[in-house]
Write a structure and sequence with these properties.
- It is a single chain.
- With 160 residues, the protein is of the alpha/beta class.
- It has five helices and eight strands.
- The radius of gyration is 19 Å and the shape is elongated.
């Protein structure tokens, strides 16, 4: 087994290259890799993009133009752990750019239908607090939000 970790394969109808370029533009430590094309006699027209290897935020991906049979669902999502409200705001806006949709509790779908959770690191600390009342207040506040607001979560956590 390759010791370099896993590669996540993302199935698209025909937007693999466009999506790979989008994800590379959103995250630091990202880049495009090899692009393969369908050969003559295959399921897609010869010369059209079949796969695009790329790295986003240091993670390996391959985008596949496999056709319309499969689409993304919320059953799989990517968490973007943010250290500040500035980061939350940045990734929330960037991932929604071009037609993404807001969801509840820090979730969103990008323009390709892929689900993301844009989450402050601090929320995990709040939820793991030994005081269950504090954790419950933070959770209740989160349930009222779309994009997560760290200051409001902190106020709820503190009982303000």
């Amino acid at each position: 087994m390759d010791t370099a970790g896993f590669t996540t394969c993302l199935w698209f109808d025909d937007q693999a290259e466009e999506a790979a370029r989008f994800y590379v533009s959103v995250f630091e430590n990202s880049g495009l890799g090899e692009i393969t094309r369908y050969p003559e006699g295959s399921m897609r027209p010869a010369g059209t993009v079949m796969t695009v290897d790329f790295t986003a935020n240091g993670q390996k991906f391959v985008a596949l133009n496999g056709g319309p049979q499969f689409t993304f669902t919320e059953a799989v999502s990517f968490q973007v752990m943010c250290d500040s409200q500035e980061e939350v705001d940045h990734y929330w806006a960037a991932l929604r750019e071009g037609g993404g949709e807001e969801g509840p509790c820090g979730w969103l779908k990008d323009r390709y239908g892929l689900s993301w959770q844009v989450v402050p690191v601090r929320i995990n600390e709040m939820f793991a607090d030994p005081d269950p009342e504090k954790a419950a207040r933070a959770s209740k506040a989160m349930l009222t939000m779309r994009k997560l607001d760290i200051a409001e979560l902190e106020k709820a956590f503190a009982g303000e």
